[in-house]
Design a protein that fits this description.
mainly alpha; 71% helix; globular; DUF418; Bact_Transport_Assoc
């Protein structure tokens, strides 16, 4: 079956803006983990008591944590559906094509973990993306229902604890001998190979969080993106944004009341200390955060179509067009900033400094992406991924007198 790339149409700018915005939020969250890993993060954060750092921490909790991963996941699912439906319309939809595409993404994710950072999600996306393509022809209503089921199901911890016990997998043992001080020493003063070993062990030890917490959210958003793609919402996005204005504002008001109550009231109550209740409270908080992420997309879309903010938002599209490259680049920058092969800043930045640094890096990425796309049609990794997927060397340079939709 022919799966050669077809002549590209004009890109949908707002989708690239969404992707760029997601890349910003993901890096703001990731840089806090790069600055201090999960093993020592709570203890490290206790030393920062200034007003600006306390405010920065609340900003992260209220506006960033668990908000941008769902956004990126939804856009990934939407991207799969747009490509798959286009191939389906042309009678050339091929599972082997998407299998190859997801395998390459999985391998990129593995290299990302080994060479740069343990916080990769690309291999998870590759696995879930493959499942998503298998159900592309399912009824739209069923896809939407499954999206809700995967998001609202509250007992993933118990399910994965049971599964891990069946295969005798004990992820907690992989970092058992490591203390926060040891991790600090390895990252700041150890060799690159010692850091590589630590990254692999960190990834394995974080598998429960990856599959028990992140995977259900990602798959739910993949399915929602697939549903929106199958209904071709992107062709009438301005109208869709206007149609859902009232319900989304009502939902975000309710969920934000809960989010604020959770962060500032519930966590101090005795009932929160009871495990069964705590899990339900946390699950409701996660759902509220996902809703907040979706609200961000609605708000950006509304500002884009209805206000003069379009000019302010438009530069995000350059990063969004090179989302894979910029995502991996952020990990490379993190390695240089925090590890022994670079500036050794691990566990030296306050929350406010990390937040400011993330924004500065992202601004540089906007400028770099814009310059790159002036001369090239794809980002470097996007081009490699495309060439390997289609099994041919695709031209990357922008021809003379050709607009690259900048």
């Amino acid at each position: 079956m022919n799966t050669q790339p077809t002549k590209s149409k004009k890109r949908i700018e707002i989708l690239d803006i969404f992707r760029g915005f997601a890349i910003l939020g993901i890096f703001v969250v990731n840089i806090t983990i790069m600055n201090s890993t999960f093993l020592n993060q709570d203890e490290f954060a206790l030393q920062f008591t200034s007003n600006i750092d306390q405010i920065s921490e609340k900003i992260l909790q209220l506006f960033f944590y668990t908000k941008f991963f769902p956004i990126f996941s939804l856009l990934f699912g939407l991207g799969i559906s747009i490509q798959a439906l286009k191939m389906l319309d042309e009678n050339r939809l091929s599972f082997s094509f998407f299998g190859r595409r997801m395998l390459i993404l999985f391998l990129i994710g593995v290299l990302h973990i080994i060479l740069l950072w343990s916080g990769d999600v690309l291999n998870l996306y590759a696995i879930l993306g493959l499942f998503t393509t298998l159900i592309i022809k399912w009824p739209n209503k069923l896809i939407l229902i499954l999206s809700g089921v995967f998001l609202f199901f509250p007992f993933y911890n118990q399910v994965f604890e049971f599964l891990f016990s069946l295969i005798n997998f004990q992820p907690e043992v992989y970092l058992k001998e490591y203390t926060g001080a040891m991790v600090n020493k390895i990252i700041k003063h150890g060799t690159y190979l010692e850091g590589l070993k630590l990254r692999i062990l960190e990834y394995i030890s974080n598998i429960p969080m990856l599959f028990g917490f992140l995977a259900p959210i990602a798959f739910s958003m993949f399915l929602l993106g697939l549903y929106l793609g199958k209904n071709k919402i992107y062709n009438s996005l301005e109208l869709f944004i206007q149609q859902i204005k009232t319900p989304i504002l009502l939902i975000i008001a309710i969920t934000n009341i809960y989010r604020i109550a959770f962060l500032f009231v519930l966590v101090d109550l005795k009932i929160f200390k009871l495990e069964n209740y705590r899990e339900l409270f946390v699950k409701a908080m996660v759902i509220s955060d996902v809703v907040m992420g979706l609200f961000y997309l609605w708000l950006i879309g509304w500002l884009y179509y209805n206000t003069k903010w379009k000019k302010v938002l438009s530069p995000l599209k350059y990063v969004g067009r090179m989302a894979l490259t910029n995502y991996i680049m952020q990990s490379f920058i993190g390695l240089i900033l925090f590890s022994s092969i670079g500036f050794k800043l691990y566990e030296t930045l306050s929350p406010s400094e990390a937040l400011i640094l993330a924004i500065i890096v992202f601004i540089v990425q906007i400028i770099w992406s814009k310059v790159w796309l002036k001369y090239f049609r794809f980002g470097p990794l996007e081009w490699v991924w495309r060439c390997l997927t289609y099994k041919e060397l695709i031209p990357i340079r922008v021809p003379r007198n050709f607009s690259n939709n900048l």
